[in-house]
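Weekly modeling sync, notes
Attendees: S.R. (lead), two postdocs, one rotation student

Agenda item 3: backlog of single-chain predictions. S.R. asked that every request posted to the team notebook include the full sequence so nobody has to chase files. The rotation student volunteered to paste the first one in as an example of the format we agreed on. Action items at the bottom.

Example entry:
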Amino acid sequence: MVEVELYEAYLKGKLDKEDLKKQKSKNVPLLMEELKLKYRGVTIHKNIKCNTWYTRFRSNGKQQYISAKTQQECYNKLKKALKNINSTNEKITFIKTMSLNQWFNKWLELYKIGKVKDTTLLDYKIIFKNIPQDIKDLPLNQINVATILNVLNNMSAERQKQKLYELLKIVFQKAEDNEIIDKNIIKRIERPRHTKKNSNALTYNQEQELINASSKLKNGDLFLISLFQGLRKGEVLGLTIDNLNFDKKTITIDKGFNKYNEFDSTKNEQSKRTMPMFETTKDILIKYKNAKNRIFDISNKQLQLLMKEIKTKLTFDFKLKDLRATFITRCKENEIPEFVIQSWVGHKIGSKITSQVYTKHNNDIDDKYINILNKSKFYSNSTHKKN
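Predicted structure, as returned to the notebook:
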């Protein structure tokens, strides 16, 4: 057994002192403490002047020095140091060659899985599919501004383009935070524009036209409940029989119905609420008193077809959220305090969205206020006379 093998066997417990004594018969030249020991080609030397042990090795172009009181301690330190260096080098190599696809999956694992809804994770993956596979396979640090701009410019849907931009900005920022890339190149790209179409309240004539058309359609009551209760699409689709309390005249919103045709949580925490069941609503919903589960048992696709059908019977176009805007606008017109409206529709108390987004000026009500102003002291006390 050669010197190095002898000492390594002793360190690993394969040899004890008795075994070492037997090696004398094989003319081992040095005592155990003085064996020249190597680990991965690095030799441990004895410093005769101060009776210690030391070794040197190079890492990343720099010389590293290790010393210890005993040969065994120096050996253990060297072993640990080289192991850490190799582990770090492997990590650095992986980071430098990590593709966009690899980092996206790692980003989901680190920051999103278990922290957001499953449907949100699915949305991220669907948006990410807009990126061609050859670009997904590129190392993250080789992707430049022109590459991303090409991807965005080849997308026609404005909102999807904006969503991909926002997703990549977050993904690249986390890559910068984790020192995988030097800079977040997405910050150098202008955010794609998307013209958001705000909801509009129906006029009184449009409202009556919608009511008449809805009464002649199967599942047309869905439009009326949306109108008279101000519910979101997911809320009205997610209504179940246990949400209705005809005795207390209340409707409880405790869940939604997502685009994947599954029950889901509400839009946010304040969306969970119990609101009044208004008399007109009660007259409509009473016929569903014996429903087994969902009040309107239709899919999102069936709702789209229902929307197309009712529009053929109307003289105007509308979106489902316009009915929610109409409800909020009617509440404002009837001078219901905003904080009450917000509690009914699931807006945060004090939020500006109720008045800025969902409340629209209705020209049909102008006559009412014109008459009020004409009869007010503002005009009746006027000394101005017509010639």
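Discussion: group reviewed the output briefly. DSSP finds 18 helices and nine strands in the chain.
Action items: rotation student to repeat for the remaining queue; S.R. to check formatting next week.
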